[in-house]
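One chain given next:
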Amino acid sequence: MPLGMKNNIASINAINHLAKAQKEMSGSLERLASGQRINSGADSPEGLIFSEALRAQIAGVQQALQNSEFSLSLVQTAEGALAEVNNLLIEMRQLATTAANEGATDFGALITLQFQIHNAIEGVDRVSQFTRFGNKNLLDGSQGATGMGGNEELVFLKASAKTIASPLSGYEVDIDELPQRASLIEDLDDEDASGLQITLEEEDGAIIRVRNPEGASAAGFANRLQKAVFSANMNLDIRYDADDEELTIEHREYGFIKGFTITSNKEGVLVDDAYESVLFLGRDIEGTIDDEPAEGDGVILTGAYNNRKTSGLSVAFLGDSTGNAGSVTVA
């Protein structure tokens, strides 16, 4: 019996028209839902390009407006402080005018007026010292100081109102002790790592406990420790050298206050005694600026407050050797 194929052309046309209508309806619903005429390149390739360019410009303008508002707030803060200084200056002028009337003012009144003027002067000093926007001092004179390190290892950070401008040759910076990061470097083989459990606490930070199962390798322990440190957002680096079987735990920042504490459940593994917390600390930089004492904080040297020339002058040293680090110019 011969076979034949029958086609229902009307049905096929109806299905095609229905599919087209559904596609158009889907596009219309997408536009209605998003509120945008162009949702993809298929809607209008050229229009999408212009749309994205305009969106980028709009984002830039919005950020510029936010920056302007931020700057306006800063200026308003400074304006309020200057208004208070102006009031204090007017008060001092009135007191001085009163004191000038010697005919009607006795010695006791003059002493009282002098105390009032002294208090007003202290008020001006307080306003200039403590007027800040965020962490930025506005009226202490530090924003008027500029500087530059003499090389790529010496970076000028800031100067205070008490910092005196340097000669053209700059202020010489000498490094006596290099900064260090808190670190632990100990041997760790598979036998010691099996069943090892430690407690690791970052100074003023998170605390984690990591346990290595019995029979697990030292590399596996280092991997578990690294994941735990990452999850706790600790400021520590974990490294393991499989060839030398050596584990390193190191703080990412320099300085005496940047440290960590570790406790082990095995005697002689990472620390000497089991279940005894051992503190590892870094070291601050030590040095002088123009032969005047400087206080170290990590990699930052700041001229001591009572220094004659370099009071409040801060520089960062990024080198790796002691001795003369170069010069810093302040204007």
